[in-house]
Specification:
The complex is a heterodimer of chains A (about 650) and B (about 300). Chain A contains 26 helices and 5 strands. Chain A is mostly helical. In chain A, the strands form 2 sheets. Chain A has a two-stranded antiparallel ribbon with strand order 1-2. Chain A has a two-stranded antiparallel ribbon with strand order 4-5. In chain A, helix 3 runs antiparallel to helix 4, helix 15 runs antiparallel to helix 26 and helix 17 runs antiparallel to helix 22. Chain B has about 300 residues and is mostly helical. Chain B has one domain. In chain B, helix 1 packs across helix 9. The chains are: A mainly alpha (about 650), B mainly alpha (about 300). The interface between A and B is large, with 66 and 71 residues.
Chain lengths: ~650, ~300
């Protein structure tokens, strides 16, 4: 219990200190040390609780409910002011509606509800806490170096780093709070904090574009927040619900009670995890400094969305609404992966791949069988680490080569060997056997086959095509990185120490997780699944051995480079007999010296962003309508 | 893993290149006959590869050979995994991994023709993948008819007493359609082919020579045998029919190779994806809905 309290309170205190200290005094030390503390604390929590099963705590501090309501209203007032000032009236309307719902609930129903346990912990929260603690803190350390460079590169942007780090740590604190809360009112409170934090971070640079995108994120998430508030209101007001607003009780109360709030909260989760048609806010969020993107994409924000949907997966299982959620996730996976093919901006590729992978997690959670939930949690873990690593790599590269275009990263293995190598690990982690995401995709495929005749064929088609395009866009990125070009100058030495401090552990973790995934699965994920479904999924020992053999081969094969490094005859590439200089310049028509330029395929005609986004919006809005309509039907018996 | 499996894997690693090379020799003989030539001796592919290993070692970049070696190792691994009865989904993923290494090798040399080949090889992976994944899913569904809970294991599927082909005719046709992608035959010899093409030179393999090129050829033999095993899975209920089917289909693919010109990549991709969607997915849907009760 103390560890839980510490993980929520400590980042908050650090945040406050960082805000107050003038001119970033001691900032580096404070951030480094507190990152270490948070990582240790979340590992300690993991080590002491992994086999204890769900634990509930009352955590009934005096005035805490009132304090939360007060902070919620303050945030609402701030949003009201900001939206009026920026003339974003949609946000104004949404925040007024949302606050009205919550205030009415507090006045009319809350006094009659007695809360037994506000806080709880089980294996899923432990996994989430480890992700938030480790990946989140490393990103904060990285941000130290990155933001220093950032403000040197962008003199026009005012240096608000105190504020920046305050919000980052507050964000982490809120995420811890979210995954430990059992009382839905508390979950809602932390949910709203993550919304406002992401709004503040996306708008950090203060440019017009950043402001617009921040509001886009805010509006979409407020819409989700409204659904969340409605779920709480329903639980308070409906006679059948009997005022159950504790997660553990809600999960055991049966579908008749839990389905409506589950669907509403899943809708909130869909907005937060940027599923179509709400995907545009996450794509827009890349205007923020890279550590923000890394934080939003890997360990916080979007993971909060899928976390809630996974929590409600057992309720969604076998219901029409659940299947519609699965299809929304599935089509988002397919379309977002396809859009990624047509993008050359590295951050945009990463953004769409995040949306796609979250789609897969949502699809699994919507299916809700024990195999599917198992796959969903695996996906979440592996994605957090690889994606965090990739964003940080792209951020570092961007500051060195002044571009985030994949086409400009040609020959990075020569110019920035270490970073390029880590990027390769990250990318391999996203799509190649035997790395993490592929293990999860495999589990997903197996889960989809057995889901239900209603949705299985569609989901199978989605994953078959989706993984095909995934291979395409990642492999061509890898290809650019490993080109051996003649540019000899290494530009890696100027990378900040803080950036290395975050990059090495994350790269190591990506590989280590692949080695340890049987352990992670058997000690954390399987007990969690077993507790809920009385069934546990696993890959089978034979397959695990084969995966490990593959991993071993992948790690050992580079040693052959030692042999191939020996002196051999070098020739330049075949150029049809054209006289070519070693740096691949040649004399073209009319005697003009030209440089060889190679570019990847982007297939705009097939995978154009606008076209596919429109299709996705239409499709997912339709599915969403069916999702709400499905509440009437409850269980589908096929 | 038991001894039987390890022995099968070893047998594959040792004998598959021999069988694959022989198939290549027969292939060249038949192709020559179709074109009114005499053709090379049966063992010519072996002579070719042996000679390649005697050539001078020449590279464009030092790292390039590493990728090809890894390609070969993973191709052999994939086949061994399949012939030792491993999980069919893992086989598919390992196959993709092997091909990605070949693509990376082609990228690493920074040469225009191999670059073009690498892009096209990726497109070929992209058009092959949906069909093979759906096929694996279909086979699992069929295995559910006789095996409690179904099985993804290649041996379980190969020894099914139910004729898989009768349940998966659409997927089988779709598989035959894209088989030439992996056999590197027309109309899908986009990324590289057995013959040089003017705009492509040798595509993916342009910058590889000598023993490295020999390794690519051996990997290709491994793959041929692996694919034949895949055809076998459709007919596992009767080994004789299965072997006959493999021979007929291979002859058919040679005929297609000699009668079709190469597709452009958009046509290749669109047609393969449409066929996977129409034949493959409809086949799967039918399996789910018609057999819904017993599956």
């Amino acid at each position: 219990m103390n560890a839980l309290f510490f993980l929520v309170a400590f980042p908050l205190i650090v945040a406050a200190i960082l805000l107050i200290l003038p001119k970033g005094m001691l900032r580096n030390h404070i951030v480094n040390i507190s990152a270490l503390v948070i990582i240790s604390a979340s590992l300690y929590l993991l080590a002491t609780n992994y086999n204890t099963g769900p634990m509930l705590y009352p955590a009934d501090y005096p005035w805490i409910g009132e304090a939360m309501l007060g902070i919620e209203l303050l945030i609402a007032a701030y949003i009201l002011y900001a939206s009026l000032r920026s003339q974003k009236y949609l946000a104004t309307i949404l925040i007024i509606l949302q606050s009205a719902v919550i205030i009415y609930f507090e006045a009319a129903y809350a006094p009659g509800i007695e809360i037994k346990n506000n806080v709880f912990i089980d294996q899923l929260s432990l996994i989430m806490a480890a992700i938030i603690g480790i990946v989140g803190s490393l990103i904060c350390v990285y941000a130290l170096g990155y933001m220093k460079d950032f403000h040197e590169h962008h003199k026009e942007i005012k240096d608000h780093r105190n504020w920046f780090f305050f919000v980052m740590f507050a964000f982490i604190s809120a995420m811890f709070g979210l995954v430990f809360s059992n009382n839905l009112m508390w979950v809602y409170f932390f949910w709203e904090i993550t919304t406002i934090c992401s709004y503040l971070l996306i708008g950090y640079t203060g440019t017009h574009e950043a402001q617009n995108n921040a509001f886009k994120a805010l509006i979409m998430n407020l819409l989700g927040g409204l659904a969340f508030a409605a779920a709480i209101f329903y639980l308070g007001s409906a006679p059948s619900a009997n005022g159950i607003i504790e997660l553990n009780e809600l999960m055991t109360s049966g579908k008749a009670v839990a389905l409506i709030p589950a669907v509403l909260i899943s809708f909130a989760g869909i907005t937060k995890s940027a599923q179509m048609p709400f995907s545009s806010w996450l794509v827009g969020a890349m205007v923020a400094p890279t550590p923000v993107s890394a934080l939003l994409h890997s360990s916080t924000m979007v993971k909060a969305g899928v976390y809630m949907i996974i929590r409600f997966a057992p309720v969604l299982q076998g219901s029409l609404s659940g299947y519609m959620i699965a299809l929304i996730g599935g089509f988002t996976f397919l379309l977002a992966s396809s859009i990624a093919v047509s993008q050359s901006n590295a951050k945009k590729v990463l953004a769409y791949s995040t949306i796609a992978n979250l789609g897969l997690i949502v699809a699994c959670a919507g299916v809700g069988t024990y195999e599917a939930v198992w796959a969903a949690i695996l996906l979440m873990v592996f994605h957090a680490v690889s994606k965090g690593l990739l964003f940080l790599c792209v951020g570092t590269v961007e500051h060195r080569i002044n571009s985030r275009d994949i086409e400009d990263m040609g020959g990075l293995i020569v110019r920035m060997p270490k970073i390029a190598f880590m990027m390769l690990i990250g990318i391999a982690g996203m799509f190649l056997a035997p790395f993490g995401m592929l293990i999860s995709k495999w589990a997903t495929l197996r889960a989809f086959i057995d889901a239900s005749p209603l949705v299985s064929p569609i989901l199978l088609g989605i994953i078959a095509y989706g993984s095909a395009v995934t291979v395409f866009f990642w492999a061509k990125w890898m290809g650019r990185l490993i080109e051996v070009t003649q540019v000899k100058k290494q530009i890696e030495d100027k990378v900040n120490i803080e950036e290395w401090l975050a990059l090495y552990p994350l790269a190591g973790l990506t590989v280590l997780l692949c080695l340890m995934f049987p352990l992670v699965s058997s000690t954390l994920i399987e007990p969690f699944i077993l507790k809920i479904y009385n069934h546990a999924a696993q890959l089978g020992q034979d397959n695990v051995i084969i995966m490990l053999i593959m991993l071993f081969l992948v790690l050992v094969m580079p040693l052959s480079m030692l042999y191939y490094r020996k002196e051999r005859k070098h020739l330049s590439a075949y150029m049809c007999g054209m006289t070519t200089m070693p740096d691949m310049r040649y004399t073209g028509a009319l005697g003009i010296t030209r440089e060889l330029a190679l570019k990847n395929y982007y297939m705009q005609n097939f995978f154009g962003e606008n076209k596919l986004y429109r299709i996705g919006t239409a499709l997912c809005v339709g599915l969403m309508a069916l999702m709400f309509w499905g509440i009437l039907y409850g269980e589908v018996l096929i | 893993m038991n001894t039987e499996q390890i022995l099968s894997a070893l047998a594959y690693v040792i004998f598959a290149p021999i069988l694959g090379g022989l198939v290549a020799g027969i292939d060249r003989k038949i192709t020559a006959k179709m074109q009114g030539r005499v053709g090379p001796p049966l063992l010519q592919p072996f002579y070719d590869v042996l000679k390649l290993f005697e050539k001078e070692k020449v590279v464009v970049s030092r790292s390039q050979n590493f990728y090809v070696l890894t390609y070969l190792v993973f191709m052999a691994f994939t086949g061994a995994l399949s012939y030792s009865g491993g999980d069919i989904l893992l086989v598919i993923f390992a196959l993709t991994l092997a091909h990605v290494f070949l693509v990376l090798g082609a990228y690493s040399v920074n040469s225009p023709y191999s670059y073009l080949g690498a892009e096209r090889e990726l497109i070929q992976i992209m058009l092959f993948e949906p069909i093979i994944i759906l096929t694996a899913a279909g086979m699992y569904m069929v295995s559910k008819l006789t095996i409690e809970g179904g099985s993804f294991r290649v041996w379980d599927i190969a020894t099914l007493t139910t004729p898989v082909i009768l349940y998966l005719p659409g997927l089988f046709l779709a598989f035959i359609y894209v088989l030439n992608v992996k056999l590197r035959k027309s109309p899908f010899d986009l990324s590289t082919s057995h013959h040089a093409h003017q705009e492509l030179v040798k595509g993916v393999t342009t910058e590889f020579s000598g023993s490295t090129l020999g390794r690519i050829e051996i990997a290709h033999w491994y793959e041929t045998v692996l694919l034949m095993g895949f055809i076998y899975l459709f007919f596992g209920y009767n080994p004789l029919i299965a072997v006959a089917a493999i021979i007929i289909i291979y002859l058919f693919e040679i005929l297609v190779d000699n009668t079709f010109s190469r597709f452009k990549w958009p046509l290749a991709m669109k047609s393969a994806w449409m066929i996977a969607l129409i034949l493959g997915l409809v086949n799967l849907c039918a399996l789910y809905y018609v057999k819904g009760g017993s599956l």
